[in-house]
Structure formats: structure tokens, C-alpha cells
């Protein structure tokens, strides 16, 4: 994940590397839940994934998808993936719906919280939020109970 890059201006990792490492781990877990939660809004739509392209030596790529729902405008969702050095697997580092980055949105929110409350408090909050189960949006939950 891009922990150091995301919060470099707000947090000086030289002050307490361990606290920063704990934050990055909590942030990663929190973002996994955030991505999963964002995807719960899409149900029974058709999803088209762009054709594969040669990756070559690139370490960061974008996979474009289009969510199609009859009678509604298509929604473009891009997934930004990174391949760590000497690895064959790719990691999702961002999800952008209609050009809005989920990572950038969370970064802006957390930067303010870190400035106001401090890194340890925000780390604890992220750990708690990461424990929360992914919730199905209410309109879908009501349909599921019928």
C-alpha cells in the first residue's frame, strides 16, 4: 500500500518508525474493507473489463471496467494495481469511480484526523473500523429480508 507516500507530509516517519509501521498495517486493512464496501453497491449489473494489454516491465497498471445497468448511465471504475519488485502477483492500490480516487478521498480525510488527533489515535480508529463487517447498502438489505 502507499502508506508513506499517502501521509508523508502529515507524518514524519523518522520520529517513530514503529508507530508509522503500525499505522500502515491498520490503513491497509481499513482500505480492504473500504474497497469491499464500495463494491457492495453493485449488484446484478453487467461488468465489462477492458481487454488485456501487454504489461512488459510496468510496475503500476490501470484496469478499466464499466458497470452497465439497463436504463442508467454506465459507471467507469478503474482499478490501479501495483506489482512489487520480484513478485508475480499484483496488488490493488486504488479504485477510482468516475475519476474519483477512493485512496485520495481517504487520504484527505485521514490527514486532517492525524493533524488533529495524532497518529496513534488514528491508528487505533482504523483498527476498529477494519474489524467492522462489510455492510450491504440498506435498500439491498431490505430486499434480501423479503
Low-confidence stretches: 1-5, 141-146
List SSEs in N-to-C order. HHEEEEEHHH
CA gyration radius, whole angstroms = 18 Å
Order of neighbouring strands in the sheet with most strands? 1-2-3-4-5
Oligomer: single chain
Q: Give helix % range.
A: 40-55%
- Nearest-integer average pLDDT: 83
Counting helices, strands and paired strands, the structural category is alpha+beta
Give the N-terminus to C-terminus distance in angstroms.
40 Å
Question: Helix and strand layout, with pairings?
Answer:
Blueprint: H1 3-7, H2 17-39, E1 46-49, E2 60-68, E3 75-82, E4 91-97, E5 100-101, H3 102-117, H4 119-131, H5 138-144
Antiparallel strand pairs: 1-2, 2-3, 3-4, 4-5
Helix pairs in contact: 2-4, 3-4
Would you kindly provide a written description of the structure presented here, covering whatever features stand out?
By secondary structure, the protein is of the alpha+beta class. The chain is 44% helix and 21% strand. It has 5 helices and 5 strands; from the N terminus they run ααβββββααα. A 5-stranded antiparallel β-sheet has the order 1-2-3-4-5. The protein is globular, with a radius of gyration of 18 Å.
Amino acid at each position: 500500500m502507499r502508506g508513506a507516500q499517502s501521509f508523508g507530509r502529515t507524518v514524519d516517519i523518522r520520529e517513530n518508525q514503529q508507530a508509522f509501521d503500525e499505522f500502515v498495517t491498520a490503513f491497509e486493512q481499513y482500505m480492504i474493507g473500504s474497497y469491499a464496501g464500495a463494491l457492495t453497491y453493485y449488484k446484478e449489473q453487467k461488468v465489462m473489463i477492458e481487454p488485456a494489454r501487454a504489461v512488459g516491465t510496468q510496475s503500476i497498471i490501470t484496469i478499466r471496467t464499466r458497470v452497465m445497468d439497463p436504463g442508467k448511465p454506465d459507471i467507469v471504475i478503474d482499478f490501479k494495481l501495483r506489482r512489487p519488485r520480484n513478485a508475480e502477483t499484483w496488488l490493488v492500490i486504488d479504485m477510482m469511480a468516475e475519476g474519483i480516487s477512493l485512496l485520495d478521498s481517504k487520504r484527505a480525510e485521514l490527514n486532517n484526523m492525524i493533524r488533529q488527533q495524532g497518529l496513534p489515535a488514528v491508528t487505533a480508529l482504523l483498527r476498529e473500523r477494519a474489524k467492522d463487517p462489510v455492510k450491504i447498502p440498506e435498500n439491498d438489505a431490505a430486499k434480501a429480508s423479503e
